[in-house]
Amino acid sequence: MAAEPVASTTRRWWWLANGLTLAALGLLVGRPLLELILVGADQLAVGRPGGLDRATAGAALANTIWTGAAVAAVAVTAGTAAAFVTERTAVAGRRVLRITILLPLLVPGFVSALSWARAYGPGGLLDDAVGVSMPGLFGAAGVVAVLAVTAMPVAYLVAVAALRTQAAPDLGRAARVSGARSRTAFLTISLPLLAPAVVGAAALAFIAAINAFGVPAVLGTPAGFRTATTRIYQDLARSAGDEAFSRAVLLALALVLLALVFVVAADRLLSRLGPAPSGGGPAGPVASLSRSGRAASLAVWVVVVVATVLPLVALVLSALTRAVGLPPSPANWTFANLGEALGMRYVGALGRSALLASVAASIVVALGAVVTSIRGRSIGRFSAAAVLLTFAVPGSTLAVAMILAYGNALRDTLVLILVAYVAKLWGVGHRVVAGSASGIAVDPYRAARVSGASPLVAVRTVIEPQMRPALAGAWLLVFVFAFHELTMSSLLYGPGTDTIAVAILDLQQIGDVGVVSALAVYLTLPPLLVATALLIVGRSSASRRAP
Amino acid sequence: MTDSPALVCRSVTVDYGPHRALDRLTIEVAAGETLAVLGPSGSGKTTLIHAIAGFVPLSDGEIVLNGRPVARRGMAVAPDLRSIGLVFQNYALWPHLDAVDTVAYPIRRRGVPKAQARSDAEELLRRLGMDALVRRRPAEMSGGEQQRVGLARALARQADLYLFDEPTAHLDAAGRVAVQEEIAAARLGSGAAALYSSHDAGEALALADRVALLRAGRLVQVGTPDEVYARPVDVWAARLTGPASLVGAHLEHAPGRVVTVAGTPIEARLEGEHDLEGPIQLLVRPDWVSLGGPLAGVVGDVRYRGPHTDYRVDTAGGALFVRAAGTPTAAVGDAPGVQIERAWMLRADTSEAPPWTTG
User: So what's the ipTM on this one?
Assistant: First the structure.
């Protein structure tokens, strides 16, 4: 119903907004995907790729599917457990723990992979300290582990949201006074109520994992473990030839089909499970910890430190250490890596990434506002659904489709990359903007209207001020994602249009650990610091507003 | 069952960090008795109920259920091991269970096999006249229906003590009546003790054998409904327990006891504290005063409410609220005078604002 105020603006605006949305959807997603399907069908018709190449593609796709499933299982288990610990027990350092769990959200996947390599790989922090490195870090095990780390924050957030919207403290209490032991209450009430959230989180983790490129590129490729995304990169960016090209197109098509099938299946399952429970009930004082609760909180703290904190520390230490193999003690510290990373070679890439990210963020926020303004009507609803689906389209697929649709006209230009960013991140920005719009009550708008404000004035004076934080948040989020984007950039860049993420990937393949670490630090730390500061400020102001 | 009280709270203290939610609260509920805990929001009603149920630890004091200590500082029997039925303010129905499974839940926990528990639950729901709700989930019920299922769940627990945490606070008038009737009927049937929290004086006075007034975590007064209504310990208690007017008056003991309002002697049934003298306040309930009498006053407001009519009569001692049966017999501006038939004498040291509270 919250859509009503803006939707009841003038008819002309409604047509304009709809037209704009549909045109943008068609240009950004529809035409490229159509092109991809046509070319793919064409290639298959002429018998390409050949049998051997199809087998290679099939193997890569199989790897993608099983790693995705494994990642979803690990991330959801860990995320749900962590949510229970931070929301339902008196864990020590709750606020710091929450922020630490969320850290990987703002660390690009390939930087997480690099940090794990620096922490637990051969010649890493652990190797220096006790002479042990993680077996299988380069290979399937490492890919699954790091992808799970990057997917866990989303699973955690979903579980936390579910735990908070349930009147769960009271629901659990009702079970206890009915005579259920705490374990029975957990199994019969808390867990079943979480089922929809768990399914949703698993779907998100699976989609994120099959879309991932940076992690398998850093940890899988050197060990010969290939997924669909790294195979596409290999075929498009690293080799020429018709067979390789056909294989890339085939894989791109298979990947998007996989994602869409999965999204639809998860949606079906979710609607069968029924709506997520909601309702009041103040979260009462947290119960004191039982022994098992204490063990669980300790375990979550350990996992978070091992998975997130130590690798980032290792990355920073690598950036500060003079040469690989030297222990990262202050005696061996240098600022040379950090200095070199700011040299002419990389400053251009950094600048291009910043420019692309800010333009993409501005366009996405504007589009988000337009689509939100037409929600509630049938075409508006269709547009919103389509926009959200674009996020499920894997970056690799989207990049291949962009090349097919606009490669001739825009080859080697920043515009090609920009178009891909906007298409991919539109859904992210839309979610934030639409989420905020749905929380805005209708009555203040009506009050403005009966006070004599025209629709536009009412939107500007009543709706827009309430949405401003969400618009700013959406802008920042899209900026950070675009700034960190590697998958599409690595397929679309040309001479003079490489982004900072691409530069890091190339340099990492050459093996300059110190400068790679320094660049990764530059890429990651500023957004992390800003976000942490915002989180702390936001939390405290939110708690001040609480009744 | 033994002769020991169903519930004894001895000097119960609960702290949320620096905030003291309950402060040395001592109350007792006899076997078969219903005690209403009446207090404004934030007075500690829910905390008291959560402490008795075992959801919050005590900082001090002791809780004894049927002669068995269940909580003191550093010791707490788990909620499932206390024999308690609880009806929640927010219903707290489980969204994934229909009414039968909800009511069967506590029966199952007693170790009754699933099929038996479900048929017992269905039987209970039918007995309570909820046949139509049997297969429905909370999302398919109105608030009143949800709360009646919540009540059935509590009854299915077959507890020694029932706790009601403002069960009607979120209901509309019709739902409120339905749930109150259900609770009264269930109490007559089971004979178990109950503690019923409310912020509504009418509800508390109507349902309870005794009423406890709670203010900022402290007990202000305990007594029968008539005691707390007719003899409140102070102005705050008077306002909490129903509509009341306060009139400035003067008390002299020589030669006999004489109370005057603006010079007019009051011939009324007067009760109150013993050592009063000089300026005092008279607490007058609207049903203790009638139109037409020696104390001069002008009608300032008339509200016809159906079964009765409320008047505000402005006297030299202050505004007096009068409730009389039937249709209005005086209009604004008339000066019928009033007759105070009964009053409760209080100290005049209050500095608080107008005396009318809704009831």
Answer: 0.75
